[in-house]
Amino acid sequence: MGIISVENTDRLYWLGRYTERVYTTIKVFESRFDSMIDIDDLEYEKFCESQDIPNIYKSKEDFVARYCFSLEDENSIISNLMRAYDNAIVLREEIGSESLSYIQLAVYAMNQASLGRSPLIGLQHVTDNIAAFWGMTDDDIEESSIRNMIRVGKLVERIDLYSRLKVFPERIRKETRRLTNRIDKSTMRYDHKRMAHVNYLVQLDDLPYETLTDEIEKLVGDEL
Amino acid sequence: MTTYADIFSKKERVEDMEIYAGSGAVNEQLARYGVKFGIYKNNEFKEQLFPFDMIPRIIDKDEFTYLEKGLKQRVVALNCFINDIYGDKHIVRDGIIPEEFIYAGSGYLPQCDGIKPPKGIYAHIAGIDLVQAKDGDWYVLEDNLRIPSGASYPMIARMISRRSSPDLFTGKHVEDNRNYAAMLRRTMDHVNVGGHTVILTPGRYNAAYFEHSYLAEKTGAHLASGHELIVENDHLYFIDYSGRKERVGAVYRRISDEYLDPMTFRKDSVIGIPHIFDIYRKGNVALINAPGNGVADDKGIYYFVPKMVKYYLEEEPILQNAPTYLPYYKEDMKYVLENFDKLVLKDVAEAGGYGVVFGNKMTSEEKENFKTMLKNEPRRFIAQEVIDFLDIDIMEKHELLPRKADLRAFVLMGEEPMVWKSGLTRFSRNPDSFIVNSSQGGGFKDTWVLSQ
Q: Does B242 touch chain A (CB under 8 A)?
């Protein structure tokens, strides 16, 4: 492995987390948006509750405008995308210009989406570019530990979001298996006991979503 | 002198360029790869795309051969000069350059006295700014020996242009300029004293951060910030994520001398590396470019570069300076005051297009004030004849428009001096301006050197 600083290790991990956060929240937003078109105007309230974010929105229109595209809303999709960008832009040497370009394109796509009247069409370009980014990191980055640091961030975020959204336990089990297989390959420091505990929790018949969220949040990083 | 009109048919010049520009492909690609520079406006950092014009500057083979020879000669002489100034100072003792031009300038660093950098190279990467006059003659306007930037832009522009408009290149015999990273790597490896090579960046909010990160990627060097590097036991180390210390043998630093080491230079620097200068002095790390080079690229010293060529190399200078006057000399002061309106005056301490004023653009009051300042501080300014630059066409809103442009040529000192067969052509976007700097709204072009 080439030399890589603690700071960049952290950035790779968070790049994985933020790209996943943008990707999954767009997917969830898509399904809620569909419901808000003509079924339930207040669907966004449930969404905020499930995401554990404050409901600061005045209407479904306000929710769509701010939650998707407002940089002043720290929970917005665009704010999370910019956090991904802020991490990626200082990782050109680690991830390469080709991979980085897809994050750049996702930012342009997001800005473009904010101008249109069909947010789902615009946001689809954002998720397309994030998917291309992940594909490119797998294909283009020679250093496996770098690839794995991004993937660990992505999987941690996915399990975190899935447990907040209380998705079917089997889906969470699948992502947990993937994380367990991946985390040692990343050479990142993490809490081994906590990883074992996460594996235990996901096997329980009555999956304790909140405990799982707490545990996965503390698996890697400052909490160690 | 070859222009694009000589090698492109009229149809290509207008119709194809228009299609090329109108397709949006180039801008799309530049945006995709984040070809940007940072700028501070109202204390806020903004990234903006560097405006690119797709019509290349074209230099034919013979013309470039002449430039190449002259550039090598000039940079070799400048390196001899810096070695001499921080060594035995023969050029001062022999009365070729008055000592006040050396020691009174802010570029001279007494801390560098007596230092011999690895392989005796001070200016590893030189950016020499040239302009071509309407009669075809080239003039050197400025030598940049500290941290000349800009090579990454034509590098990536070439890659993009070849993708966007392959037909433009077919049969034109253009030298490939995508070898800059390999040349830079050879230059860095040549002076590496053992260990990794890193590019030291002040960080993402530096105007040239794109270049730092792009060159790191393309050369395979490690991009590092000051806090990731540490001096211990007289050597420089990069601390990796596991706490392991990896020896560093060469640092291509993209931060200026005064911020390099808070123990030696500015104490308030938070982007430098404490004690790096001490181990550099001991020969335990190469710094690229070496500290102290400012003594040779001061605008006041520029006047003396042709004299350096004669003094150190015993050769006639191949490249000429723009006609320059030093108000420090009485006869030059008299000439400057008498011909004020036809001269451009430059503050020797400024860079980036700042501190440049044209005599004929000042009001009567401004002129009188400036003349008083000139008399009080004659060492602070140089005056130059205004060279009528050759205009180069740019494409703007489906029209070909003439604009002033310069050329930054890059000379790298490896085992042998190497001149990059390309360069950064910067142009003014304002039809009435000679100022081409990106910080002042200028754009850039690719520079084609023909191979036959």
A: yes
Tell me if B195 sits within 8 A of B246, measured CB to CB. Answer: yes
What is the three-class DSSP state of B313? helix
Instruction: Note whether B177 and B421 are within 8 A (CB).
Output: yes
Q: What is the DSSP string of B330-349?
A: HHHHHHHHHTGGGEEEEETT
Mutate to test the interface with A, among B152, B217, B218, B273 (most CBs of A within 10 A): B217
Are the Cβ atoms of A5 and B214 closer than 8 angstroms? no
Residue showing tokens 């002095």: B281
In this structure, the strands spanning B138-144 and B320-321 are parallel
- Taken in order of first residue, the domains within chain B and their CATH numbers are 4-317+388-449 (no CATH), 323-385 (3.30.1490.270)
pLDDT in tens, chain B (452 residues): 666 666 666 556 556 665 555 456 777 888 889 887 777 777 788 787 888 988 899 999 999 999 999 999 999 999 999 999 999 999 999 999 999 889 888 889 999 999 999 999 999 999 999 999 988 999 999 999 999 999 999 999 999 888 887 778 878 899 999 999 999 999 999 999 999 999 999 998 898 999 999 999 999 999 999 999 999 999 999 999 888 999 999 999 999 999 999 999 999 999 999 999 999 999 999 999 999 999 999 888 999 999 999 999 999 999 999 999 999 999 999 999 999 999 999 988 776 667 888 999 999 999 999 999 999 999 889 999 988 888 898 888 777 888 999 999 999 999 999 999 999 999 988 887 777 776 667 889 999 999 98
Please report the number of interchain residue pairs, chain A to chain B, with beta-carbon separation below 8 angstroms. 53
ipTM passes above 0.90: no
